[in-house]
Amino acid sequence: xxxxxxxxxxxxxxxxxxxxxxxxxxxxxxxxxxxxxxxxxxxxxxxxxxxxxxxxxxxxxxxxxxxxxxxxxxxxxxxxxxxxxxxxxx
Length: 90
Hints:
CATH architecture: 2-Layer Sandwich
CATH class: Alpha Beta
Strand content: 35-45%
Structural class: alpha+beta
Distance between the termini: 24 Å
Number of helices: 2
Largest sheet: 5 strands, mixed
Helix content: 25-40%
Number of domains: 1
CATH topology: Alpha-Beta Plaits
Number of strands: 5
Radius of gyration: 12 Å
Order of helices and strands: EHEEHEE
């Protein structure tokens, strides 16, 4: 299963990308995360349905200094490979 996500709120400059990488790697997910010019954080992740559900819950919470206002989460039907381990794109 593969998803695209975008997290809105106070999510840049608070360790959000590192938090996402650590959460994804702990769940053995492939994918990436990056900062967007509009202040959001976006990415793609691929793995089991259960692992993605756990990842989604963690993204919605975020690290201690983040303030997540909205999490957009969309299933994708793509077959190309995502990076493993999960990584930060610049």
